[in-house]
Design a protein that fits this description.
Layout (H helix, E strand, L loop, with lengths): L2 H25 L1 H4 L3 H24 L2 H37 L4 H9 L3 E2 L4 H8 L16 E7 L2 E6 L18 E5 L1 H4 L9 H7 L4 E5 L5 H15 L3 E7 L3 H8 L3 H4 L15 H14 L7 H6 L2 H6 L2 H6 L13 H14 L4 E7 L16 H13 L3 E4 H6 L16 H14 L15
Parallel strand pairs: 1-2, 4-5, 4-6, 6-7, 7-8
Antiparallel strand pairs: 2-3
């Protein structure tokens, strides 16, 4: 092989790799190329670099093209080695998030009928064949031990309350000051009992119930409020919106006919009693799941691990060069806020939205709020249009000396993050007259 051919070959390696980004972005134009920051990041810059490598390989002097190609290919190989190192650490974190157990832990879990692995309500309702909102599973399983995750310190779990949520059961013995709606951030993902957001608020004197399950989106949270709000009549309802996946979760939820019915002013949200058959079916489904061990194969089937490796996701995230998908407008979100506020005010309570930013905003020397803010502006704008108070944790966390410490390796709140968020919420919650509404017994 001549120097000319060798130079073309080694320049083609980084050149063709860099072309993958603009090709993928243009094929998914509305998500990765329709706005200027995304076009620059995913199309123009990698496209120009790709063309430069290919032109040098084809037209530069063989010695120069060989030098450029070797440098480019070597740099690319180094980036992939760095990516591989971090992917290995991600695998252990993700397996823990899925609830990977040791043989002894798995045996204990199998024997104990009161223990269930983590779940999403949307997934269980799909498997159970739910087709009516009033019969849907909108909570966890009462008095059941729920596995949140596993870590090098063992299994992190909680015992569900009388409704199936992560609270001590006595929290319902008096009127609730705060009902927290949300996903895994509200459920307290991978935080030991007493260190989650709701527990932190209880520790500061507010009678608080976490009404959140991993995987929930805004529409599922509205349905949950519709079922449990009138029964519990909290003085304040706080919906926690997570920037990382709540918008995408909402898009998926809106495709489910029975769940979309929650938007109707005349929606029949049902009771625990009307959902008993669905809950029994869901228990059977989870009983089968807990006998199946979590393996590394799950990371390929349940996550985008391979795609992210090819895209150098971990490496570019640490540089602050990974941008979220472009926000698609969704007017249904405002309808959800309108309906949630109306339900809350029907018993004299107040409704507040909390905005939780994703960890990616605060990682790397090139991190910027710009690519993330369109979604934030969409959410805050919808809340403002409905006259809803917003507690924006993005602004608060940005003021911290090391914002990254507010998050755990799994990108949820760390212990410090949960405490910080509780302090921010406590300091900004609107006052509600103590006489507003009455508490009613369990349904």
């Amino acid at each position: 092989m001549t120097k000319r051919h060798l130079g073309v070959l080694v320049c083609a390696i980084p050149g063709l790799y860099l072309l993958l980004s603009p090709i993928y972005a243009l094929l998914h134009y509305e998500l990765f190329a329709a706005e200027i920051p995304h076009f620059l990041r995913y199309v123009l810059i990698p496209g120009v670099l790709a063309v430069a490598f290919i032109v040098v390989g084809l037209f530069a002097k063989p010695q120069f093209s060989l030098l450029v190609g070797i440098c480019g290919a070597s740099l690319l190989a180094g980036l992939f080695l760095f990516e591989a190192m971090h992917t290995v650490s991600v695998v252990s974190v993700r397996l823990g998030m899925f609830g990977q157990l040791s043989e002894a832990q798995a045996e204990t879990l199998t024997r104990n009928e009161k223990v269930v692995p983590g779940f999403t309500l949307r997934g269980l309702n799909r498997l159970a064949g739910t087709d009516e909102l009033s019969e849907a599973l909108l909570s966890g399983f009462p008095s059941t031990q729920v596995v949140l995750c596993t870590s090098n310190k063992g299994v992190v779990s909680y015992t569900a309350d009388r409704f199936g949520f992560n609270n001590p059961d006595h929290v319902y013995d008096k009127r609730l000051d705060v009902m927290l709606l949300g996903d895994s951030f509200v459920e307290g993902f991978c935080l030991p009992p007493g260190e989650d957001l709701a527990s932190r608020l209880r520790g500061r004197g507010l009678s608080t119930a976490s009404i959140g399950i991993r995987g929930n989106g805004p529409l599922m949270e509205l349905a949950t409020l519709g079922r449990f709000g009138e029964t519990l009549r909290p003085r304040r309802v706080v919906m926690v919106f997570f920037e990382g996946n709540d918008w995408e979760n909402l898009e998926r939820e809106l495709t489910v006919p029975w769940l979309r019915a929650a938007l109707s002013p005349n929606a029949n949200y049902g009771l625990q009693a009307t959902a008993k058959e669905t809950m029994d079916q869901a228990r059977e489904i989870l009983a089968e799941r807990k006998n199946a061990p979590v393996t590394s194969v799950d990371l390929l089937t349940r996550t985008a691990l391979f795609r992210n490796f090819v895209a150098l996701q971990q490496t570019l995230t640490r540089l602050g060069l990974v941008y979220p998908k472009i926000t698609q407008s969704n007017p249904e979100f405002r309808r959800i806020l309108h309906r949630a506020k109306a339900l809350t005010e029907s018993w004299g309570g107040s409704f507040t939205l909390v905005y939780v930013p994703r960890i990616d905003r605060f990682i790397g020397p090139f991190s910027s709020d710009g690519p993330f803010d369109p979604l934030r502006m969409e959410v805050l704008g919808a809340a403002a249009a409905e006259g809803i108070e917003v507690i924006d944790l993005q602004e608060a966390i940005r003021t911290r000396p090391e914002p990254i410490l507010m998050y755990a390796p799994d990108a949820h709140f760390s212990r410090d993050g949960a405490e910080f968020a509780a302090n921010e919420i406590l300091s900004r919650l609107p006052a509600v007259p103590e006489s507003a509404g009455q508490i009613v017994g369990s349904n």
